[in-house]
Structures are given as structure tokens and as C-alpha cells.
Amino acid sequence: MDFLRPASWEEALAAKAEHPTAVPIAGGTDVMVEINFDHRRPEYLMDLNRIGDLDAWEVGEESVRLGASVPYARIMEHLRAELPGLALASHTVASPQIRNRGGVGGNLGTASPAGDAHPALLAAGAEVEVESVRGARRIPIDAFYTGVKRNALAPDELIRAIHIKKADGPQQYSKVGTRNAMVIAVCAFGLALHPGTRTVRTGIGSAAPTPIRARAAEEFLDAALEEGGLWDNGKTIPPSVAKRFAELCAAACNPIDDVRGTAAYRRHAVGVMARRTLTWTWESYRGAHRITEGAA
Amino acid sequence: MRLNFTVNGRPQEADDVWEGESLLYVLRERLGLPGSKNACEQGECGSCTVRLDGVPVCSCLVAAGQAEGREVVTVEGLADFARQRAEGCGTGACGTSLQKARRWEARGTDSQTGEGTDLAPVQQAFLDAGAVQCGFCTPGLLVAADEMLERNPNPTDADIREALSGNLCRCTGYEKIMDAVRLAAARQSEGV
Questions:
Q1: H helices then E strands: how many in chain B?
Q2: CB proximity A184 to B under 8 Å
Q3: DSSP character at residue A38
Q4: Which residues in A lie closer than 8 A to residue B44 (C-beta atoms)?
Q5: A52 touches chain B (CB under 8 A)
Q6: B165–chain A Cβ distance below 8 A for any pair
Q7: Where does the signal peptide begin and end (chain B) (predicted)?
Q8: CATH number 1.10.150.120 is the correct assignment for the domain at B106-190
């Protein structure tokens, strides 16, 4: 094994072009487990920790450019206002030690259906900035996950940053596991209200071969909210609408039975989480709505 | 490959490091510092917790090469680290030598009271509260608890639980560990 230690992003791209099988390592919380257990013996290990740009973030007008290896602990601490869904998701990752090292770039690189960041990214809306010596491109998050632990990266590409839409409304994240810490999600659910466009976006984790959105549920809810004038009148969502939304979210799943839970349980739990996160976010939206109305 | 980094305040060098080995392996097998424990090797148990540039991490998940040029504090250096944090490092003879770290033990001139031992306050609190049973998880808990008390001198029970949520203990049921950290925090705020 060779240990590559690029000092700059350009050096890293050149090294990846020369050795497409090189495994990038940042926080190491996925890669080192595989090496420790001898599940993987890469020819080249490429340390990205020396590249300063990767653990920085910029808050822009519309989105946050999050460096690929910004640890979860920093997202929780510094980006709760701009990225509430991702901050909540970050807080559910493993333990403080892991959150001090692991970041969203690694979650995307591994592309496990159970990765904690994915539902939050899908719900908020995001693009993955990837680059190779051939050039840079941005992959919409909806096109990024291509299979179980597979993503849209070419062999010579590296993930540089994630551009995540800043929250324009309440966001929530929910995860099912046997305890609070050190849990791989049995299933997870992210929900973001986008009052600006009067849309709702969802993200489902660990209940299909890839992280997915529940598009039929989103379309149903968008139409129901519009029809009832709910974005304007700030009324409670009728129970029948919440119930139907939950059913459609559960129906979007394509889960399997495994050691963490059965397919039936996952489908049921996703429905419960969908209903709960919808209630939480909508109540929060209504609260803000009433305050704005009162001030006007 | 050769690895140069700082361990417990002193520059160290390790030779013949395999590119895929962990920082934990380097500490235990190359430098002879077995305080950090090797259990799960997948970041689940926290028994290998060390400070890497001040931040608590699972040393089993840090590739050795990633520690190049960085500063590591292990449980063997915790007493000196805590003392220097409290008193500063005036003489220039700060840190803990490898020799001293290898010989470290929690035994003082008086085995009953612990008098004369070289312990960080959090270590003394673990002894006083009876928070150590088999002792395997203790080094990781000490490093994690010490870092939390540095950052958050007046932790709530929820803060303590969260800070130690990455450290598994299969003996104590955690109650005595909670007592120990509360005791260390109380002593710290009273300046004892």
C-alpha cells in the first residue's frame, strides 16, 4: 500500500487521475473500519486532511458551500440556522468522537443507503461539486445515488464540496434506532418545507437500495396545501391529508429485511416519521406565520 | 514509512509504519503506550479515544499517516497535560517522555489514599467515586471526560451523557462514572 499525501487540491486531482483506484480518506470513519477488518486493501490511500479548503464552508445568498470534510460537529455548532435539517441529522451520527472526524463528503463517497446525511440533503435540495483533471461539475443530489453504495462519481473524480440550499422554512429529521448514540439507522426521514416555492421535499434513508425522495407524497401534499390555501391561511393540516401523506411516504419505500429491522417495520416507521415531521414542521411554520401576520 | 508526530507534548518518531495501520496501532505497538485500548476497531466503543490536535477521536479510525506532524495526547500523558493546562508550562520541560509514559501507573506513596500519585483530577475522581471496575474502558472515558470538563466546566447530566455517549462500559452501568465526572466538575469549580 502507498500513502499519498497531496498538499493541495490540484495535487490530489493529479494523483487521483494517475491512480484511479486510490481510496480517498478524510475522517476515516468508514475507510479505516474496512481496512482494520481487512475487507479492503487499497493499493493507494490518499489523505485529504492536508487540503485546507475541504474543511471550510461559505454561507452564500441562496446556499451553503460545505467543504467535503467539514466534520459533523462543526455543522451542528455553526450551521444550525442555515441547514437545520442537516444539523439535526449530524447530531444523530454515531458519537462525539466520530462527529469530530466524519463529514458529509465521506457520507456521499460511501453512499450507503443508511448514511445519516442523505435524507437531509434530499429534503433541503443540494448539488455535489465534484472535480477531476478533466474539469469540475455539479451533480444534483437526486442524480447522485445510483445503487447500494454506488454513486455517480467517475473513477478519477473527487468530491470537493456540497452546495446545500439554505432553509427557507422549517426542516425536521427523524431516525429510528435502538438507542440515541452509535446507531446505524433502521430507517430515517427528512422533511423540508419550502414556503418560497410552496413546495415540500422529503428524504428517506435506509428503506430502499439508495436514499430516495417520496415524490408522489410530495406532489400530493403540494396540491393539498395549495387547494386548502394553507400556505396563506396557516390552518392546521387536516388529519386525512397527513394520513395520506404518511401512506404515500411508506409506499415510496422499497426496503429489505435485515438484522436491523424487517421491511414491514421500516415501511411502517417511515409512515410514522413522515406524519410526525410534517406536524412538527407545519406547526413551526404556522407559529412563524402568525407572528408575521400579527406584526403586519 | 516513517511517522513524525508529537505525543504527550514530546516529539516522537515511529519507523516501519505500514501505510494502512491505525494511529492506535502505532501508539500501542510501535511506541509501547498500551493505555489506549484496542477493542472494536470500528469506532463503536471509544476505548481507544485520544486527543488529536486537541479533539477527541477514535485512534483506531485515524490512519497513521494522517497523524504526521500532529499532536496526540494519550491517557498516559493526561496527568501532565492537566497539570500544564492548570499551571502553564514555565520550565520548558513540559510534556511526558515516552519512558515515563510507559512506566505510568496509578500508584502513589500511599496506596490507600492515593497520596503522591501522578493523577489528573478526573483520574482521581474516577478512583474516589469507584468508577473503575475491569478498567478496560477507563482510558477512553478519562480522555473524553477530561476534554468535556475543559470545554464545559459546569456540565449538566445530559451534557455528561452526551460527551461520553461514544464510550461503552460493560461493567459499571455508568452510574459511578457519572458520579466521578460530577465529582471532578465540582472539585474543578471549587478549585480543589
A1: 7, 5
A2: no
A3: T
A4: 182
A5: no
A6: yes
A7: none
A8: yes
